[in-house]
Specification:
Blueprint (H helix, E strand, L loop, with lengths): L2 H20 L14 E2 L5 E7 L10 E6 L5 E2 L4 E5 L5 E6 L5 E2 L4 E6 L10 E3 L8 E5 L5 E7 L12
Parallel strand pairs: 1-11, 8-9
Antiparallel strand pairs: 2-3, 3-8, 4-7, 5-6, 5-10, 10-11
Length: 160
């Protein structure tokens, strides 16, 4: 499989995972630090995730998307990572006065990210292959959206 085909395949799989995840309830909100509730009907969703690229473990990104017809103020929103044991780490905080226009993307990237698309925010933590990612409101307790890469990752999708 060539480099271009591998990337397209990943994008298709990530999109399918997002579609399934958005229809499933959350689990794992026990005593681990991290978000405690999920926002229902969120306008902004995690649309793509890459845990590593050709340049190494920090050649990663998380893209969010405003799927509504209304601009959303995402100032202070947080990107959190969880590891395979369910422990959360705050990875990035969106700058003040950041408005995500309708039907637009916002890109968080790791320090080794080397793709052509310019990022909006940078994170320095590693997005582990067996963990997950959560988009959290400034209150640090409400999760807008989340994706888990393993059954033990906190804040991701559960089983119906």
């Amino acid at each position: 499989m060539g480099g271009g085909m591998g990337w397209r395949w990943f994008a298709v799989v990530a999109t399918l995972l997002w579609l399934v995840a958005s229809a499933l309830p959350l689990h794992g909100f026990g005593s681990a630090p991290g978000p405690r509730t999920q926002m229902s009907g969120a306008q902004v969703v995690i649309s793509e995730v890459r845990t590593r690229g050709a340049s190494g473990v920090l050649d990663e990104f998380v893209e969010i998307y405003n799927r509504s017809d209304t601009a959303v103020d995402i100032s202070g929103w947080q990107l959190w990572f969880s590891d395979g044991s369910g422990q959360f780490t705050s990875a990035a905080i969106v700058a003040d006065n950041t408005i995500l226009p309708p039907r637009h993307h916002f890109l968080f990237r790791g320090t080794e990210y080397d793709d052509a698309v310019a990022p909006d925010e940078v994170f320095t933590d590693d997005l582990t292959d067996d963990g997950g990612v959560a988009l959290v409101l400034p209150d640090s307790t409400t999760m807008v959206d989340g994706v888990a890469f393993s059954a033990n990752a906190t804040g991701g999708e559960g089983t119906p």
